[in-house]
Amino acid sequence: MWAVTVLAFVIGIVLLLVGLAVSIALHELGHLLPAKRFGVRVGQYMIGFGPTLWSRRKGETEYGFKLIPAGGYISMAGMYPPSPKERAAEGRAGGGFFATMVQDARAANDETLLSDDDDRVFYRLPVWKRVVIMLGGPIMNLLLAIVLFTIAFSGIGIQTATATVAAVSPCVPASATATSCAPSDPASPAQKAGFRSGDVIVSIDGAAVKTFADASAIIQKSPGTQLDVVVDRDGVRTPLVLTPASRTVSGTQVGFAGLTATVEYVRQPIWAGPEAAFQNVGQVAAIVVQLPQKLYGVIESTITGGQRDPNSPMSIVGVGVLAGEAATSTAPILDRVAFFLSLLASLNIALFVFNLIPLLPLDGGHVVVALWEGVKRLWAKLFRRPPPKPVDATKLVPVTFVVVVLLIAMGVVLILADVINPLSILNP
Questions:
Q1: Which residue stretches of 111-211 are H helix?
Q2: What is the DSSP letter of 143?
Q3: Of 200, 343, 378, 384, which has the most beta carbons under 10 Å away?
Q4: Which residues are CB-contacts of 41 (< 8 A; sequence separation ≥ 6)?
Q5: Residue 61 pairs with which residues in a beta bridge?
Q6: How far apart are the C-alpha atoms of 148 and 145, rounded to whole Å?
Q7: What are phi and psi of 182, to 5 degrees?
Q8: Domain boundary among 234, 266, 298
Q9: How buried is residue 181: exposed, middle or buried, by Cβ count under 10 Å (0-12/13-18/19+)?
Q10: Is the pLDDT of residue 93 over 60?
């Protein structure tokens, strides 16, 4: 039995990794398609980082997979303007670590340029085209999330308590926590009223009932009140009279009938998927805004062994654990599939939001650079000044380095937290 459980857990993780790889591939495709459409020369389209596992060249672009599946990239010609002639003649820069990094970045960029008048380069594109290229990746993740949420909610549905009666309790238990009937317990109002398993509640006291939640709300607020109920019994509308018993719950008197609902998958409207996606965007954005505070909470709970905030950020390890737990759970198969789809959709929302952070090397950083150049050009045009030179983003390489270091450090912290004090769907 344990071997089956372990196998299911591994399958869940593998499926998530495959889904993540597809998400990354589509993200990079979101960059690739507009780049080629706008005439930019793309040297590589790669999934992963590190040594190349497999690649194949088609036309001028090499497509392949790398060893470390932690992202992907496309290599566009002329991401930055060419090095100034005087700097290019100097060779390797002196002046310290960051100066060397800047010069190395310029040298690597220069290798993608065929000549000074090469027009198939990124930096020569109009600002709006550069923005479209850089936003193409995150938008692809958003669209994928919408599709996945739509399949989960509108294709599979959500388990919902329907208006169909599954069972009728024979009694009114002595307490709300009681699980069985004692000989002294009175008969339940539902049994007295003549409810049967399979009855579909149509209306209560003239109010139409569509779900069990509708019926429950009326019953709970009507203790000791006679209610006229209409049920559909084998296609025949049958009137019943129900008088809910009075029970005390949290100091409040509520009505009790003794009905158990049938739970079914109810498909949601087609707009439920997009709504869930954009709600998720807001939730992830809130986490990103509060990221330092959230990380501190993760570190504190990991060190102290305290309960971790369920809305805290996770690494891919933590997400993999959730996928594995879902695969091994005893929930109905459709529930597990819907959970997996929603998990993968949420992961794509995270990729969408995170890549919009306005810092290099993230897509949002490149968008900011392009917009800044657009502002400079507009300013020069308004005041009839000569067109400004293209923005040399290689000067921001030190900032990029710091961001990368911080991202790596955050990844390590979250991985350790997900190993030592993981979030769980089994023991939330």
A1: 127-150, 189-193
A2: H
A3: 343
A4: 60, 76, 77, 112, 120, 121
A5: 58
A6: 5
A7: -95, 155
A8: 266
A9: middle
A10: no
Is residue 4 packed enough to be buried (19+ CB in 10 Å), middle (13-18) or exposed (0-12)?
exposed
- Domain match, 420 and 296 both: yes
Number of domains in the chain: 2
Does residue 149 sit in the same domain as residue 277?
Answer: yes
pLDDT tens-digit map of 25-83:
999 999 999 999 999 999 999 998 889 999 999 999 999 998 887 788 999 999 888 87
- Beta bridge partners, 66, equal 52
Rounded to whole angstroms, the Cα distance separating 419 from 262 reads 39
Report pLDDT digits (tens) over 270-304: 999 999 999 999 999 998 889 889 898 889 888 88
Same domain, 212 and 141: no
d(Cα 394, Cα 109) in Å, to the nearest integer?
A: 9
- Name the H helices within 69-126: 85-90, 97-110
Q: Domain boundary at 266, 285, 307, which? A: 266
pTM reported for the whole predicted model: 0.83
| 162 three-class SS | strand
Q: What is the pLDDT of residue 176?
A: 64
Q: Assign residue 247 a region: left if phi > 0, alpha if psi is -120 to 50, beta otherwise?
A: beta
* Token pair in block for residue 312: 């805290």
One domain, residues 147 and 177? no
Rounded to whole angstroms, the Cα distance separating 116 from 414 reads: 45
> Which residues are bridge partners to 72 per DSSP?
47
What is the sign of the dihedral through the CA atoms of 303, 307, 309 and 313?
positive
Q: Which residue, among 163, 138, 401, has the nearest Cα to 262 in the 3D structure? A: 163
The helix or strand, by DSSP H or E, that contains position 264, with its residue range, turns out to be strand 259-266
Helices (H), 291-396: 291-304, 316-328, 333-355, 363-382
Kindly report the CATH number assigned to the domain that includes residue 179. Answer: 2.30.42.10
| Whether the Cβ atoms of residue 80 and residue 123 lie closer than 8 Å to each other | yes
Tokens of 333: 């198969």
Paired tokens of 10: 């591994």
Domain membership of residue 150 as a residue range: 1-17+136-157+269-428
CA distance 150 to 269: 9
Respond yes or no: is residue 264 known to be catalytic: no
B/e letters for 223-243, b = 16+ CB within 10 Å, e = fewer, are beeebebbbebeeeeeebebb
Structure tokens at 231: 């049920």
Please provide the size of the chain in residues. 428
CA–CA distances in Å: residue 71 to residues 28, 67, 362: 9, 11, 12
- Residue 75: strand pairing partners: 44
310: tokens are: 């369920």
